[in-house]
Amino acid sequence: MGIDELKAKLEKREKIYSTVLGEVKSTVLPEIYKSTGIDFFVLDMEHGPFSPENSSDLIQKCNSVELPVIVRVQDCEYYCISKPLDRGADGIMIPNVKSMEQVEKAIQCMRLAPVGGKGYGGRAQLRKGEILEDFNKNRLLFLQIESRIGTDNLDEMLTRYGDEIAGVIIGPYDMAVSLGCGLDIHAEAMTENIGRTITICKKHSKSIGMWMENDAIAEKWFRAGMNTFWYGTDITMLTTELTRAKAFIGLGCDGWKAGGRRHRVCVFCGF
After folding, report:
1. SS3 assignment, position 70
2. pLDDT tens digit string along 166-187?
3. pTM, full prediction
4. Is the peptide bond before 95 cis (omega within 30 degrees of 0)?
5. Which end of the chain is less crowded, N or C, counting CB atoms within 10 A of the terminal residue's CB?
6. 134-172: b or e for each residue (b if 16 or more CB lie within 10 Å)?
7. Mean pLDDT value of segment 252-256
8. How many CB atoms lie within 10 A of CB 206?
9. Exposed/middle/buried for residue 185 (C-beta within 10 Å: 0-12, 13-18, 19+)
10. 57/18 Cα distance (integer angstroms)
């Protein structure tokens, strides 16, 4: 199963590739995404138009092609966390985690007894072949760190609840705003705080990543110790490829030479 492969990669801190689905509600996408070799994608219920009710078919299509889907919820509340799992989500991402109380509440909301207090229900609660005892170990919890206080408290979170946490993801723009850097994700305060977050995750052998919008950012933070690449969105991927294609056929640049194409290499597909 895709979830078993993802869990193994997370535990070994291997390179993991993900993206976010934030706008396009199509059940065609999971099979396409799966064919690219992507490890998982994030369904954005924090900022996007998705809800458990309008995304159930999309989530269950992910289940059918064994593409792990992690739902970023609106808040650390029972109704936000439990229902996506009832509808088939493989895991939950909690945004803007700052306190131990948030981590404890997330565990209570997404784990069945005796670990937590989640209610059992929903037509996609268990996968084909799963038994009740598999549920807690097969549903992944990601903490999104988006502030200095989140980083300050991360070591204690991972010390006490590391076994329940699959990985840590940085939200760069919210972190920049919280640090007083505006939207400058390359500011010195950002580099320092992200570096501290990476160091803490390395100490606990925990996978860490960040939302990344281009190749340069991905390369920078891979060299600094990140292993999870939450790259682009459905809209930015589409825009990037349309822009590349436009340049290739000569609508926006010098285009083709007479009698042949001027050689250009796409950073995504290598063509």
Report:
1. strand
2. 999 999 999 999 999 999 999 9
3. 0.89
4. no
5. C
6. ebbebbbbbbbbbbbebbebbbebbeebeebbbbbbbbb
7. 46
8. 21
9. buried
10. 20
